[in-house]
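new request in #modeling-help
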Amino acid sequence: MSDTVIYWFRHDLRLSDLPGLQAASLTGNVIPVFIHDEKLGDDWAIGGASRWWLHHSLASLAGTIEAMGGKLILRRGDTSSELNKLLTETGASHVFASRQYQPWSDELERNVHDMASEHGAQFKRYPGTLLFEPGSVATGAGTPFKVFTPFWRACLRSPQPEAPKPIPTISFPEVWPLSDALDTWNLLPTSPNWAEGWASLWRPGEAHAKNVLTEFLDDKVQNYGDGRDIPSKPFTSKLSPYLKFGEISPRQIWWAAQRCKDQEPGRASAVDKFLSEIGWREFCNHLVAQFPAMPDKAFNTKFDHFPWRGANASLSAWQRGNTGYPIVDAGMRELWQTGFMHNRVRMVVASFLTKHLLIDWRLGERWFWDTLLDADLASNACSWQWVAGSGADASPYFRIFNPVAQGEKFDKSGIYTRRWVPELKDIPDKFLHKPWEAPPLTLETAGIKLGHTYPSPIVDHKEAREAALSAYATLKALSSEAGVGQ
Ligand code: FAD
């Protein structure tokens, strides 16, 4: 094989089950490349927590490639310009990549295609990020699904995703282009190092992704059906950051899940529930591929009239976990301290922001974008719009979570809340989720001084609920006057 080809890594930082890499390895000597394009996506450039994961993920991928006798070439700058330079430097005949579905991806891929053609090289893109390609699953009328259940049913009726492929045999060139040193990219926070301790919580990289999946299917999935809503229990997979960076493919998950069902038929319904959550990831990605304004604009245009509030002191209290509602504060502090938040609590904090504080869902979406390790444009946008009521197949706006009831239902004994809000650790369970109702003596015995050691609630639940319902009524009136809606 004399041709030199480039494999351009994107959010597919793995070597197994990567169709584009498979094809590259059959075509020539492969130069693996990752380009850190800080301007890609403009306002949606990579957030702080994701930079931490990216650093470790690239270090892990580079290590595996080196062990195979190759190198991961790192370049920083505009993607097309860097690929252009690499084509000049290497004379590569092809650029291979996985297709991506962010609103800017198509244009970028077209530019790379045109730029490669000018070099007489071919740009080839392959699936690899989703189970089903956007556009391949449609309603009987050929339109995109806007409701999850029929979407997922149609996916399950489609031909099964192909079985995953192992790491291909890759031959590498003898001469290498220059590479940046990863450390010079400064992806890790320094002053302050807010990610201190994350290395003991998270192990980015393909090998760890596989271990996490195996451990989940071997030991946890049987509890997924009932346990996935309990934030103190380790019953969800925590695969989201691995999926976001493509360290594991959804096909690998799909097929491992099918094997698990074959071997342990008693786990079938829990496994199917888990797969349907992977289905939500598909649904969100298909939606954003087809409605690219979704991260910035209400899917249901009726919500353009909603009287959202902008940034204010309550937003800061929410971000810092100082709202005075213990389950909300626990979630926001878990997020800040670990780069992750349990799904049930994500729903509670998002509802609190958009309904109790009436703050624009886009401000919450931005905060999550910066602080979540799994920050994913599609899943984040769709989930925020789902909670805010403006999304496809959304929870109705008038369904307002009561943060006290949510805490009492899903963290009854308070293990989760006490872990993240330690100043409430000694309050009796009965008052944990509503410390303002505790008698003065109980608070004193627990060492709590409301408004000093722990905040008083920043809004009253009942009043906030009424304000939200009345804002919603205004919206309904305004939108029926304007004759808009979906
Ligand atoms: P599991 O329960 O083990 O689920 C397996 C996988 O399915 C997840 O890893 C994830 O890839 C996918 N998944 C599960 N639930 C959802 C969902 N509701 N929507 C889309 N995919 C889902 N998920 C992200 O990956 N990135 C985000 O930026 C993101 N932002 C969110 C914002 C809000 C306001 C809410 C309510 C949810 C958000 N989610 C997001 C969805 C969900 O909370 C996480 O995917 C999940 O908590 C990850 O934990 P897990 O891997 O243990 O999930």
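bot summary: The chain is about 50% helix and 5% strand.
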